[in-house]
Amino acid sequence: MKILITGLNGTLAPRLAEVARAAGHQVIGWDRAAVNPDDEKLSGAWLSAQSVDAVAHLGMGSARFAGFLAERCHNLLFTSTAMVFDHAPDGPHDVADDRSARDDYGRYKIDCENAILLASETPVIARIGWQIDPTQAGNNMLMALDGWQQREGRVAASRAWTPACSFMTDTAAALLALIERPLPGVHHLDSNAEEAWRFDEVARALANAFGRDWRVEVNHDYRHDQRLVGGPSRLPPLSARLAR
Known about the structure:
Elements: E1 2-6, H1 12-22, E2 26-28, H2 40-50, E3 54-57, H3 63-72, E4 76-81, E5 93-94, H4 104-119, E6 124-128, E7 130-132, H5 141-152, E8 155-158, E9 161-162, E10 165-167, H6 168-180, E11 185-189, H7 199-210, E12 216-219, E13 224-225, E14 228-229
Helix pairs in contact: 1-6, 3-4
């Protein structure tokens, strides 16, 4: 299978590319410097010439671009986010729940979802939480907490927050499975969906697992059950990788 993966300079897309290549698939990226996504004629010609079997849209881009990809590829996977749901109403958030985001990023992802659903009857939309990886730079919980400790001398962790989160390797494997065996619709990929670890518990478990000497300080500043539930897909639980 030939798979176009957008966002290969990002955080999760390189992990998806790794597992896809390991499974024997050919992976190509989208070079924005060579093919401007805003140039629809050029983009359409380039995409047609690639003869890809699937598109995994993990990169940033306009909602129009997301719809463009969905219209031109029947096997499209789009990674959305738990951030399409605000903390009010509280979760856990089901695939059928109204998307309530108020911040710019959450609204942007909602716009992309809408554009994709208007353009295609067969897309796979995979909403994910905060990703965890021992080495990958970018929006990575482990690296973020390293940064908090370095800058502030502590990791402030709300016990009132139940985060949606998972390890990148588990997420990448689930995304590849959805590319290989597409199941159109909305999927919630959250390793914390059933066990409901609080954020301070996750922080302490990560510190123990990866040998961090963080000073974890518990608070109740942010209140949200952010878990992503429902839908046909499942990830391994956090307890498969962390000791509580």
